[in-house]
Structures are given as C-alpha cells and as structure tokens.
Amino acid sequence: MRIRATVQDENEFEGACKRHIVKLIRDDPGSRWYIRVSDPRGCYAYDGWWQVGTVEAAKAEALRGAGLTS
Question: Does the global pTM surpass 0.85?
C-alpha cells in the first residue's frame, strides 16, 4: 500500500493513505518509533510506541496497526 509523503527522513515521516494521516517520529536511529494514525474524522486508528527499525518498517506497522492493510 502506498502512502503519499509530505515529510520524510530517517527519524520522521508524515503522509496520507486512504484519507488517514500517518505520523511517525523518533529521537534518533536507536530509538523506538512513536506512531499516530488519524482517521478522516480525526479519531486515532493507531496511537502508540513501536520497536526500533527503519522508517519503511514503521510505515508498514502503522498501516497494519490502523487496519489499513492485512
């Protein structure tokens, strides 16, 4: 599944997928990700911490956790 990115680097990502807003942030490459996915109404579909990993792995977890993929 594709996420349209508005911000992306190794420690931060923001984008949209299926009208949901996906935000990922961490302090440095050795830190856990904080993931927040908001649905079109502004309610959180995912809000929490996830393990250390790449931005690509964190994006995949955000989509899975928000129920946007299987």
Answer: yes
